[in-house]
Amino acid sequence: MDIETFRADCLALPGVHDDFPFGKATSEYDRNILVFYVGDKWFCFVNAVEFDFCNLRCEPEAIPLLQERYEAVGPGWHMNKKHWISVRFQSDVSDAMLRELVRKSYDLAVARLTLRQREALAEQD
C-alpha cells in the first residue's frame, strides 16, 4: 500500500477529513504528520512523506492479541499505549487487515462523538 491509497481509504469513511496540524513543529518528520479526523476526534495519523507506520485507536483488550499475532504492531507512538497502536507498513499486516484496523479505529472515534455529531454523521452516510 502507498500513501495515496491509504489516504483515499481513510477519506472514504463517512465524515472524515484530514489535516497537517503540526506545521509549526521543529522536526520535519512531525511537520509531515497527516491526521485523519471524524468530527473533532483523531482516529489515525501517519507521516505522509516517510509512510513508515500509522497510529490507530484500538480496544485495550485487543492490543495484546494483535501484538502477539503481528510483529508489525506495537505501542502507539506518542499516544496513550492503552488505547493506541502503531502498525508498520510493508510488514506482516496485510492490506486487508490494515483496512480493518483503520475501520475499527474510526468506529472507536465515532463512538466518542457527541450524540448530535453522530446524528449528523448518520445523515451523511
Structure notes:
By secondary structure, the protein is an alpha+beta fold. It has one domain (3-117): Alpha-Beta Complex (Aspartate Aminotransferase, domain 1). The protein is built from five helices and six strands; from the N terminus they run αβαβββαββαα. The chain has helices spanning 3-11, 28-31, 63-69, 95-111, 115-124; strands at residues 16-19, 33-38, 41-47, 53-57, 73-75, 84-88. The protein has a six-stranded antiparallel beta sheet with strand order 1-2-3-4-6-5.
CATH architecture, by name, is Alpha-Beta Complex
First-last Cα distance? 26 Å
How many individual domains?
1
Strand order of the largest sheet: 1-2-3-4-6-5
Q: Pick out the low-confidence regions.
A: none
Number of strands: 6
- List SSEs in N-to-C order: HEHEEEHEEHH
Tally of DSSP helical segments = 5
Backbone structural class: alpha+beta
Task: Record keyword descriptors for this entry.
125 residues, alpha+beta, Aspartate Aminotransferase, domain 1, six-stranded antiparallel β-sheet, 5 helices, 6 strands, globular
Summarize the structure.
The chain is α+β, with helices and mostly antiparallel strands and 125 residues long.
